[in-house]
Design goal:
Layout: H1 13-33, H2 41-54, E1 60-61, E2 81-84, E3 89-92, H3 97-109, H4 113-136, H5 141-153, H6 155-161, H7 167-182, H8 188-204, H9 212-218, H10 222-247, H11 267-281, H12 301-319, H13 338-352, H14 357-381, H15 387-404, E4 410-413, H16 417-423, E5 428-430, H17 436-448, E6 453-457, H18 459-468, E7 473-480, E8 483-490
Parallel strand pairs: 4-5, 4-6
Antiparallel strand pairs: 1-3, 2-3, 6-8, 7-8
Helix pairs in contact: 1-4, 2-3, 2-16, 3-4, 4-5, 4-7, 5-13, 5-14, 7-8, 8-10, 9-12, 11-12, 12-13, 15-16
Length: 494
């Protein structure tokens, strides 16, 4: 059996130089398409939390509504927050791992360049780490490069890399933990670092805790396990203490009870969805090649077990999640597990062609080109590179509201509520949670307090919203990025 953790000679200078140029070029490409924007619920939630951390805060004060009594606190919370009426505070919904990265970068580089550097840096680090993990697993240089390329151009990677989302960063820290665990044979310091990296991975995405068995399998012995536990302990304490402060229990997160969103009925449809889109967005052969690693004497059993656990545990977990099968980009939930599938496939390919090195190089190049071609096709098909345009609309809306609406205004909105919170100091009400009777009471109260009431809507929603939720006389004030701003004038004339 070959050494599953081989020591590789230094890469030739030409290879290092070419790799650096390629990474720099890809980084520039990603940077030009990155949207450093507080957009929908995810990106605005992360950036709102990041600005709180940068200000030394964990929660935000509830914005003044002149004593308005709202029947449900949900009406007062922008997307990305939960409302805590007892303390008149807004509590971030999302884990604070990505916001912590964004806060540090934002303080140093500003709130446009900082998020861009975090997003692009995470992708480039994931590519390098995928290559490094492949080499540690015994891949020769060409298939290891192919694996790194497949991860880097995977449309799900690209889609989540060009906006402030946690998926790529979570993948990067998982890869770091796996790489350091594989290096644990060299020194307890590597294992200590593996534990610390794993703690950060969990802080970025708590479900990365599911990958703990992978590290247990990879770490070489109980001393390495103890060193990894020592490295991860400070991060674990920080995470539990943060949960307790924000959500009232070390074991509770901002998402609420996960049992409300998981059910057995989703399992088989989601597995089919995952298999379909992995086979379309990656070279389809990647789904079959991992089975070639089974029974190959060149693959250490613990490596095969670790790769299987790394991929299977998140896939099975998210197969029960109600939204995982809805659209192609829901594969982002299993993005941290995708490197295991890719690397297992290339190990299988290398096992098949072990005695034919030239054929291995040609096959690896062919798979890499297949992946690049699939990425090009699906990136165009799904208009992934228009993400920045779509997201910039939220910033345009937020800046218009900040500059044009009176500071004492109250804004009714929904999908844009996180962006409005980020770009303005206006209090918001969520129109989708208000009925006509309740709205009339809110409007009368705000009118008596001298607070002008505005509404932000897509034109397609206006007829049903005015009819079913927000009766009265409204005046259109402006159209910004495809949404209309309206001002409330008073009750409907009899």
């Amino acid at each position: 059996m070959s050494n599953p953790n081989p020591v590789h000679p230094s890469a030739p200078r030409w290879f290092v130089g070419f790799a650096l140029v390629a990474l720099l070029g890809y980084g520039v490409f990603l940077g030009l398409n990155f949207a450093p924007v507080a957009g929908g619920s995810d990106s605005s939630g992360y950036l709102n939390a990041a600005r709180l951390l940068a200000d030394g805060q964990l929660t935000a004060p509830q914005r003044d509504l002149s004593g308005l009594v709202v029947s449900t606190s949900l009406q007062l919370q922008p997307l990305g927050f939960t409302s805590e009426p007892a303390r008149s505070r807004l509590v971030p919904t999302y884990p604070l791992g990505l916001p912590a990265h964004l806060a540090v970068a934002g303080l140093i580089f500003g709130w446009n360049l900082g998020p861009l550097l975090v997003g692009v840096g995470a992708v480039l680090a994931a590519i390098v780490l995928c290559y490094a993990v492949g080499r540690e697993l015994g891949l020769s240089r060409t298939p290891a490069v192919a694996g790194a390329l497949l991860l880097g151009v995977f449309p799900v990677t690209l889609f989540t890399a060009i906006q402030p989302l946690s998926d790529v960063l979570a993948t990067t820290w998982v890869l770091a933990a796996v790489f350091l665990s594989l290096r644990g044979r060299l020194s307890p310091l590597w294992s200590f670092a593996a534990g610390a990296a794993f703690a950060v991975a969990v802080f970025v995405r708590p479900t990365n805790l599911l990958l703990l068995p992978v590290l247990v399998v990879l770490l070489p012995g109980w001393r390495a396990l103890l060193a990894a536990a020592a490295g991860g302990l400070p991060g674990a304490i920080l995470l539990l203490a943060t949960n307790a402060h924000l959500h009232g229990s070390p074991w509770r997160m901002g998402y609420g009870s996960i049992f409300d969103s998981f059910a057995a009925v989703y399992f088989w449809p989601t597995l089919g969805h995952f298999a379909l889109w992995l086979g379309l967005l990656l070279p389809a052969v990647v789904l079959a090649l991992p089975f070639a690693t089974l029974g190959r004497s060149r693959i250490a059993p613990r490596i095969a077990i670790a790769l299987g656990l790394w991929f299977a545990i998140p896939v099975v977990f998210y197969a029960f999640y109600e939204v995982s099968h809805e659209v192609w980009w829901c594969l982002r939930f299993i993005l941290p597990a995708t490197p295991a599938l890719i690397l297992a496939a290339l190990l299988g390919l290398q096992g098949i062609l072990a005695s034919r090195p030239r054929a291995l190089v040609a096959a690896s190049v062919g798979i890499a080109l297949w992946g690049a071609g699939a990425s090009l096709h699906w990136t165009r098909h799904f208009h992934i590179l228009l993400t920045r345009t779509y997201e910039e609309a939220y910033a345009d809306i937020g800046r218009w509201a900040r500059d044009q609406l009176p500071p004492e205004a109250v804004l009714l909105c929904y999908a844009e509520s996180g962006a409005i919170h980020y770009y303005t100091s206006l209090p918001i009400l969520r129109w989708e949670q208000i009925g006509p009777g309740e709205f009339s009471r809110h409007a009368a109260h705000l009118a008596g307090a001298g607070r002008p009431l505005y509404l932000l809507l897509f034109p397609a929603d206006e007829e049903s919203v005015f009819r079913d939720r927000l009766p009265g006389r409204w005046e259109k004030k402006a159209t910004v990025s495809g949404r209309n701003f309206w001002r409330y004038l008073g009750p409907a004339t009899p």
